[in-house]
Amino acid sequence: MSNKKKGYRFLDNKKRKQIDFLFSLLNQLAVKHPYLVVLILHEYTRILYGVDPYIDFKIKNPKLRIDTKLKELTDFSKLSLLLGSYNRKDDKKFYFKLTDKVSNDLKNKTGNVYGPLWKRFKRINNHEALRLLKNRVQKKIFKNKKVLDAGCGGGRYSYAIYKSGAQSVIGLDYGDIGLKVAKKNYGKINNLSFKKGDVLNLPFKKNTFDTVFSNGVIHHTSNVKKGISELVRVCKKGGNIWLYLYSTGGIFWYSRRLMNELMKKIPYELSSNFLKMMELPDNRFIFMDNWYVPIEKHLSHEEIVKILKKLNVKKIKKIIGKNKFDLDFSLKKYKNSGSIWGEGEIRFLIEK
Ligand SMILES: C[S@@+](CC[C@H](N)C(=O)[O-])C[C@H]1O[C@@H](n2cnc3c(N)ncnc32)[C@H](O)[C@@H]1O
Description:
Blueprint: H1 3-7, H2 13-32, H3 34-47, H4 62-80, H5 104-108, H6 110-120, H7 123-136, E1 146-150, H8 156-163, E2 168-173, H9 176-186, E3 192-196, E4 209-215, H10 224-233, E5 235-246, H11 250-262, H12 268-277, H13 287-292, H14 301-310, E6 315-318, H15 327-333, H16 338-341, E7 345-351
Parallel strand pairs: 1-2, 1-4, 2-3, 4-5
Antiparallel strand pairs: 5-7, 6-7
Helix pairs in contact: 2-3, 2-4, 2-11, 3-4, 3-12, 6-9, 7-8
The structure holds S-adenosylmethionine.
């Protein structure tokens, strides 16, 4: 199924048109008032979740909330387009330049999008990873095991896995800034190390690890099949692979695609500075990954199962996210909410 078609899953035509209209306004506004687009998109991004840890939603029912906000943000965008603006392209003094595309640097290096985000994560935020991990993955897949954290970012889960009793953990990523943050926070711990490398070509022999953990990485690569086959290759027979991927469908995933497209018009630094001005809490800057990441693929459970079956893995178990911010949690809490969150997220515990 084409990516375009997948986005329409669970999404009725009327709602899709409303979302498309909002984004057509935002695309115009990006040229005149990019900072207002950041303000509006911040509001839009947060209402797409079932809960917000920092601001109470006035309207609790997510369907009603999204409907209401969609109308309000559309009106706000229309009015914003009436505001006067200057031709910044000619204004050399301005601290940013409006470009049509994100810089090549960002395009080529996903790591550069994530790097500044990991820097914002404080040690305490990283410690939250241990709680999140406990609610999602059984400890026994880590206890006394040799573990790879493939695409470790700032190392929050590498550390959480180490704390779950692993014999040894290697965190691997190709982003220099993330690796630097990981080493700064956790570099002095025995049996926990960090290595630079590509998940599409893992620098390990086959059957090296008892457990391979990969959280939110493979959908950012150019080759999902190759990425998954690499995770399976380096895992020992009888070992476990824990795989988290974005899924597809509904308002949520459809909107993420449009947000990613829209933000190509607005420099990363502008958004980052504006969100700082708004005093967005540090661990919420992760919003920006969707806005700026060069590749974000949305995959169905079926597609991933098909890839895994071809690799002859022994068992595939679907894990339901139990944390409040997991889309699965909201999908379960609110009946018939596939129109909002589609297939939710993909969490598979795989046995090789
Ligand atoms: C959403 S972050 C997840 C990080 C970490 N697993 C976590 O959950 O905190 C995605 C990470 O994947 C890394 N990444 C993307 N493609 C990669 C590749 N081909 N090889 C290695 N790392 C990659 C990025 O640099 C980024 O740190």
